[in-house]
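Take a careful look at the protein record below. Let me know whether the structure tokens fit the sequence:
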Amino acid sequence: MNSYAGIAAGLILFSGSVVADGISVGLGSLGVGGQYVHTISDSLDVRLAVSGYNYDRDVKPDSLKYKAELELMGAGAVLDYRPWQSGFRVSAGVYHNGNNFSAKSKGGTGTVKIGGTTYNLNNVGTLKAQVDYKSVATYVGMGYDWRLGDSWSMTADAGAYFQGNPSVKFKASGAVAAADLEKEKKELKDWADKLKVYPLLQLNLMYSF
């Protein structure tokens, strides 16, 4: 039993909490970002975090080509509590949320199905879709820190990012029946609803002052 206790104590010492202010950079499900960490006590830290990423590409799910863009952005404050004053922590925070998705058709020839109805592309005009989430998101999660030396550490976080019910728009500049646009909008809303609770995963390299 003593040997197991010694191993456990060594692990806790090695992964001990960062007891100084620091800055970190890393990658995660909200994109590329950085954090400033302020230590309040051996059990409490506060982090100011910002992350973001833009991705756009042309997609062609049917006969119509779209320019699609995904924008990820979050900036907020997170409070960390370390119940055993070790590398393990539980976290809660509030973010300004800028996550959104948009798509705009780029024209084409032939026909396309909208809401189950077949339309001639010459009559459809431009199709636009937009998905936005609430501007304020809350975060609940947990994390762990591994010391790499006196000043360096690796940090990992995993949790739930609650970004609320999405606002969805689907429009056409041409002659498309409102009922068909509403069907497409509902399908898009069903997809967007799956991301109301967005998984937030983050891996950072931190330097402590």
In short: The mean pLDDT is 89.
